[in-house]
């Protein structure tokens, strides 16, 4: 007698039947929600815990969650001949992570999120320097326009200038460098191997500062700290899955919905009301980066 397919099997079949772009958009939506909630946790916990302690939770809990994947890879799957570039990228990304957490704690959520979206602008410049990529004139113009949006938000020399905004910009640039280094490793290093060295190294780097600066969590703070690692891992998984099943130019723009989440969460949880400078700068950054993404998607392999 044939067994009736389980509810989960039916749901899985229904999911697979969905168009790839729709599944990608749903995965990316999950990722953006997770990252937005992660920012809320960072901001809440930042009143007591420093960015380095929060970063330790991010990497150590993430390592714990991903450990079954790493165990299945075994020593042969994790072995690398490019330890130097792994470690270089690790240090750069860890510096950027601390900067991102610091900016989330001290800026409005919408401001920190919008400035983080400037990462593709820096990626254009870094790719030219490190990878000798050829960039079209239109993409250079879009990058320049995007930086105008960054300047509108940061407002250097203005009475409303917040030095923390500069830290957020530098962190976006630093993360762009770390992301470009992934491209440099892609020919020999599979994604899970990069994740392994990234999480193990991050947990080790932030262990000593965490011990020195340790503040004992109380009650629900333990769950909130664990939540940083959980939400970051869910967000990262959502993004990886999204771009693996959907087209980048169809899926990518959905990331900017995160700015709406940040604005709503910032307003209702932290009573934050972004000013018109944030709105104007964020719109310019988003339009520029969406255009760059579409230009990248139109490029032929090898161009």
What's the helix-strand series?
HHHHHHHHHHHHH
What ranges have pLDDT less than 50 throughout 5 or more consecutive residues?
Answer: none
Rounded to the nearest angstrom, the distance between the terminal CA atoms is 57 Å
What percentage of residues falls in helices of 4 or more residues?
A: over 70%
Number of domains: 1
Query: How many helical elements?
Result: 13
Alpha-carbon Rg, integer: 20 Å
Strand content: under 5%
Structural class of the helix and strand makeup? mainly alpha
Mean pLDDT: 84
Annotation, overall tally of beta strands? 0
Shape: globular
Main sheet makeup: none
Observed structural traits:
303 residues; 79% helix; globular; mainly alpha
Describe the structure.
The protein has helices spanning 7-17, 20-45, 51-78, 83-106, 109-116, 119-131, 137-154, 163-185, 191-212, 221-245, 248-251, 257-270, 276-298. It is an all-alpha fold and 303 residues long. It has one domain. The model has no long low-confidence stretch (mean pLDDT 84).
Short account of what is shown:
The chain is an all-alpha fold and 303 residues long.
Topology:
Blueprint: H1 7-17, H2 20-45, H3 51-78, H4 83-106, H5 109-116, H6 119-131, H7 137-154, H8 163-185, H9 191-212, H10 221-245, H11 248-251, H12 257-270, H13 276-298
Helix pairs in contact: 2-4, 2-10, 2-12, 3-4, 3-9, 3-10, 4-5, 4-8, 4-9, 5-8, 5-12, 5-13, 6-7, 6-8, 7-13
